[in-house]
Amino acid sequence: AAAAAAHPAAAAPTCGCSKKCLEKFALEDLEDFRLTMRGLEKGEKDMLLLGLLLSSEYPVSESQRGKRKQSANRYTYHGEDVCAGAFRHIYDVSQKVFKNLKKHLQEFGPGPRVHGNRGRRPHHALRYHEVRFCADFIKGYADEFGLPFPSPLHGRAARPPVFLPAMESYKSVHKLHVAACQEQDVRALGKTAFRDVWSKRYTHIKFMSAKTDVCSKCELHRGCVTSAILEADKSAALGEYRDHIQEAQQERNAYKQASKDAHQQLSEKQPTFSPPYPPSSQPLKKIHYTFDFAQQVTLPHLARQPGPLYFKTPRKVQLFGVYSEGIPLQTNYLLDETMTIGPNGTKSHGANSVVSLLHHFFEFYGHGEEECVLTADNCAGQNKNRTVLSYLAWRVIVGLHNRIKLSFMIAGHTRCLVDGCFGLVKQRYRKCDVFTLEQLTEVVNTSASCNRPHSTGVPWYQWDTFFDAHFGKVKGIAKFHHFEFSSASPGCVSVREFVNSEETSVCILKSPAVALSRDSLPPVLPSPGQTFERQQYLYKEIRIFVAEPFKDTLCPPPTAVEAATTD
Question: What is the pLDDT of residue 502?
């Protein structure tokens, strides 16, 4: 009863005359007929009404000379006479349209109605010279301020793109177009027409997006192209820019091919027993791994972050991933600040950390392959250094691998699949309230089927000093992007600047290879954990943002500093 009172039934329609014509018919039948009329096309409905008006017309009076005749209509529905208002309601036609139909019948007869502007050119239509002026303005603006790209992006476009400065927009360029039209006494196009001309004629002219972590060489070449005044200087700068892009594209193609080969081999050859696989136990020669660090995450993390927490330094967790391109599956190492080599989460990105993490991955999560390809970014402190190269040479010498290829993407062009898995983790992480490492582990595990967490720590080894006595340096290591280690030449590394460059062999082994053994590992480095000052800070400043059940887990009361243990 309350719902009925809140939503009363719709009032019955009325025609406005004293005869109450609509009450002669059932309301449901009228509504069904009106819906049928609404389903007709406009032309069909017009011809139906014109026919009804013509058949219901009868003369009323005529002038003495016969020049003017008056007529009226007798409206009916299902044999019942109805007034004009009821007729319009039943046939679902407005008063204005009804009046225009009667006028059309008197002037032109029962023919289809044609709009008066049909075939006429609207007064506001664009002229050819106005559109031509707009197109020339866009092209001239791009030639003067745009940065031409050396080649089409990703091979999908027919023309190389031209990038306008990121600070500009369609609106700002349109304002300049209006000013130019006023100077030349030409009618300016509106914003919609301006963008329509742009999108149809110059699809390759785009605006730069505001990005970070861009290639420094690309920015240098772009600056040279933009600042060049003479055509010869601009052509030379553009040629250097084109060469750099082609080199980056070749490295990207090599990366894609390695991923494709790994996927094909793993789909054809399944391991003969369960993991972990002993080293060089599987006849796999094209396995491809990509590894990198992600930006650190912090605990606690709240989906609705309190403002004061933004200015604090919560507990840090490092994220290191190794992506197996052929499965695909990424192992994500979660390293709390009590687990790293240095105190309070420091020294987590050094060469000892990277090599220890790779060593743990090969031992527990590798495919047991004989040969593999490793891809990493061009960070010298983490990946491209003497310690990493010595470790890979050591693995080949002691028989853990028969061949290892290490490739580095060109700086600024290092986006790869490991970053995509990190992105899936971050998407899930941003939407969750996370207070403990166990909860963060669950976030990684549920972020995507391609992500696998490892949060129990790893043993850290002092690889750098261990290898100093056995391996030397590779001179000019920064300019090389490809390194290959083979059991056919133990202690030697083949280096190339680019994937298509000439190969050069360098011997880095100092001592005899017999002095090295897979069972002889460097000394273990204990994790110092958190300093007393750091514990005090977390307890006083961060604990108030942690949910009650997890306060003592994430920010316990300060205690004496003890080295953290690892599995």
Answer: 93
DSSP for residue 539: I
Task: Check residue 565 and give its pLDDT.
Answer: 43
Rounded to 5 degrees, what angle do the CA atoms 366, 454, 345 make? Answer: 120
Q: What is the pLDDT of residues 140-154, one digit of tens each?
A: 998 888 877 766 665
Q: What angle do CA 306, 311, 314 make, to 5 degrees?
A: 80
For residue 326, give the nearest of 282, 408, 269, 370 by alpha carbon.
269
pLDDT at position 15 over 80: yes
Write the DSSP string, 345-377.
G-S-SSHHHHHHHHHHHHHHTS---SEEEEEE-
Nearest partner of 501 among 527, 475, 483, judged by Cα: 483
Mark 74-92 as b/e (b = at least 16 C-beta within 10 Å): ebebeeeebbbbbbbbbbe
Least confident of 86-95, 249-258, 270-279: 270-279
Which pLDDT score is estimated for 8?
Answer: 44
Exposure class string for 289-325: b at 16+ Cβ within 10 A, else e: bbbbbbeebbbbbeeeeeeebeeeebbbbbbbbbbbb
The answer on pLDDT for 388 being more than 90 is yes
Burial class of residue 421 (count of CB atoms within 10 Å of its CB; 0-12, 13-18, 19+): buried
SS3 per residue for 29-95: HHHHHHHHHHCCCHHHHHHHHHHHHHHCEEEEEECCCCCCEEEEECCEECCEECCHHHHHHHCCCCH
Closest CA to 193 of 141, 137, 134, 140: 134
CA neighbours closer than 13 Å in the CB half-sphere of residue 343: 10
CA distances from 203 to 142, 151, 165, 178, 362 (A): 12, 15, 16, 21, 48
**Can you give the pTM of this predicted structure?**
0.69
How far apart, in whole angstroms, are the C-alpha atoms of residue 51 and residue 48?
A: 5
| Apex 21 CA angle, 45 and 54, nearest 5 | 40
The residue assigned the tokens 């967490």 is 453
Distance CA 39, CA 87 (A): 18
Q: Is the pLDDT of residue 3 over 60?
A: no
Better-predicted residue by pLDDT, 222 or 113 = 113
Q: What is the distance in angstroms between the CA of the first residue and the CA of the last residue of the chain? A: 69
**CA separation for the pair 313, 309 (Å, rounded):** 8
- Radius of gyration over alpha carbons of the chain, in Å? 39
Q: CB neighbours (10 Å) of residue 342?
A: 14
Cα angle 267, 272, 274 (rounded to 5 degrees) comes to 100
Quote the mean pLDDT of the chain: 87
Q: How many residues does the chain have?
A: 567
pLDDT value of position 566: 43
- Return d(Cα 189, Cα 174) in angstroms, integer: 9
